[in-house]
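FW: tagging you since you asked about this chain on Friday. Here's the raw sequence from the shared folder, copied in full. Didn't touch anything.
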Amino acid sequence: MEYKNVNFAVLIDGDNIPSAHVKEMMEEIAKYGNPTIKRIYGDWTKPHLTKWKNLLLENAITPIQQYGYTTGKNATDSAMIIDAMDILYSGKVNGFCIVSSDSDFTRLATRLREAGMKVLGIGERKTPNPFIVSCDKFIYVEILRKQSSKKESTSDKQSETDKITVDKISQKDINLIRTSISDLSDEDGWVYLGDLGNLIQKKKPNFDSRNYGFEKLTALIRSLKEFEIEQRDNPKSRHKLMFVRNVEVKKKPTRTPRKSSKKRPQQTNAANN
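HL: got it, structure written out here
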């Protein structure tokens, strides 16, 4: 999925996302486009949101006050949805980033994509799958925490974020890569790695090589014996082009049982004797 020159409206659910590593979140969003509108929603009279204050100033995020109308009900969802539709019809952006782990935004993400918007989702691993698949791409906050802890770690003592373990790639994900290569490959089975990454992202929005401990898709595929990678010269740039194809599994020939060379003794017919 191409995000070049996308102007994003970043809408953050302050009641449903941790305040830590907001800077890393904004840096991640900047990789995909320009965050022109940045808003966070919550009831700022509640003490648990006070830790957001300095972070909002540092990252130029506008806080939107939304009182809770009744006890136990989250009113920020409806405020975010209304604002999202207002921004959509204003025509000022061509993409949205919804930062939340709440499945209530599933229909909003679907509606924005129906209107031709790019939709980027950011949330914790507990985010329900319906919201994940309704986005063009979904990024786990835990990945950003781990990257931040690697950069800032200056002592041998591990912090809580350092202890986050990476996923082991499943056979299901390997099959996803394999079938995606088959969908795009040329006559010799090769496919450009960039096209492969885009197709995998469409099929599985939360697929990210960083989930498995690799910074890039190239490194992830290199680690798997099921695939082979080839570098080719790029006539338009000094950067190499990466191509990948499936490694064909050679089946062992099945042995056919040998026919016995011994001749069976002829049976004599007692009636002819």
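FW: Strands lie at 7-13, 34-42, 62-65, 95-99, 118-123, 137-140, 191-192, 227-232, 241-246.
HL: agreed, and DSSP finds nine helices and nine strands in the chain.
FW: great, closing this out.
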